[in-house]
Automatic annotation (TrEMBL):
Taxonomic lineage of the native organism: Bacteria, Pseudomonadati, Bacteroidota, Cytophagia, Cytophagales
Species this protein is from: Algoriphagus confluentis
Name of the protein: ATP-binding protein
Family annotation (InterPro entries): HATPase_C_sf (IPR036890)
Length: 317
């Protein structure tokens, strides 16, 4: 029997990823032909972080691809609201099919943020370049850039490699947004997909050594060095977690009903797929040697990347 449900996402009641996932519980396990009327309340004051808006987009796009009919509407709408203008600028309404006339002039966002974007094997390198540009021009120290250059490339590749049960590079797709917040001296990056999730990715590959892990065990162990389903070295999430501890930022992974938040396993509202969230402090340096050791080739790789893409960074802006 087909269902029709109504869901409200009220940003006056949401202040975290967990809050948002809880508000979207009714959008899980819908079938082809089901209908969703999704009301979004952006009224009020205060910043709505872009990573929250991206998660709504990712969930809605997943529903549409699965044959669920979704109608998105704004309630308590105020066209002059800073929240509305910000959501519009990062292409939130465009993805949801809500047509609004923007009452502002768009400025060049390069080096400051990336709008909500879907990535796949055809545009992944362009997305990677744009993230690195934000990191480079906003004061992240070069040692930490060396680590981030490796880690972010690995996380993006994980989506293309592991999000799909096909276990084929490029079969998976994801969403990303990144932004520098100068007052807080931090960069927030979220990379999310609505694929099979960490547990299935680790346990269902025929060559995996981790077929017997429970969901909680899979999420908990995914940041251990060497934990992989055989389609990689199991190094990317480990290096990311190590770096974020030393940076005193945040690194959160959501998959299924489990979340790893700064290394602590937490039961959370369910997410079908995988979310990687990083909050990076731009004024707390991390030495790449602490992560990779003295004899790493990561620094040379980063220097080659920076020179090939950006030349003399001091003359860019």
């Amino acid at each position: 029997m087909l269902r029709e449900i109504a869901t409200l996402i009220d940003f006056n009641c949401i202040s975290s990823h967990d809050d948002l996932l809880a508000s979207m519980i009714s959008l899980i396990d819908l079938k082809v032909g089901d209908r969703v009327n999704l009301d979004i309340d952006l009224s009020g004051s205060g910043l709505i972080y872009p990573d929250l808006l991206l998660l709504i987009v990712a969930r809605v796009e997943c529903l549409k691809k699965n044959g669920v009919k979704v109608n998105c509407s704004l309630i308590n709408f105020d066209a002059t609201s800073n929240r509305v203008n910000y959501a519009s600028r990062i292409n939130f309404f465009e993805f949801l099919g809500i047509k609004l006339e923007e009452g502002f002039k768009r400025r060049d966002r390069q080096g400051r943020f990336i709008e909500i974007s879907e990535f796949n094997e055809t545009n992944i390198y362009q997305v990677f370049q744009e993230i690195m540009r934000i990191l480079i021009v906003n004061g992240v120290n070069e040692d930490m850039l060396t680590v981030l250059h490796f880690c972010l490339n690995e996380i993006l590749d994980n989506t293309l490699n592991h999000a799909s049960p096909d276990f084929r590079y490029g079969a998976g797709t994801g969403f990303i947004i990144a932004q520098f917040f100068p007052t807080a001296r931090e960069i927030r990056i979220i990379i999310a997909d609505t694929g099979q999730g960490i547990h299935a990715a680790l346990t269902r590959h025929p060559k995996s050594r981790f077929k017997d892990l429970s969901e909680q065990e899979a999420v908990s162990r995914c940041i251990e060095r060497g934990v992989t389903n055989s389609l990689g070295l199991g190094f990317g999430l480990w290096a990311t977690s190590q770096m974020m501890v030393k940076n005193q930022g945040d690194f959160k992974i959501y998959s299924g009903s489990s979340s790893l938040q700064n290394g602590k396993l937490v039961k959370t509202p369910s997410w079908n797929g995988t979310i990687n969230y990083l909050r990076i402090n731009t004024d707390i340096p991390v030495n790449h040697i602490e992560i990779f050791g003295e004899k790493s080739n990561q620094l040379d790789m980063f220097q080659e990347f920076k020179e090939s893409q950006f030349g003399n960074i001091e003359n860019l802006w």
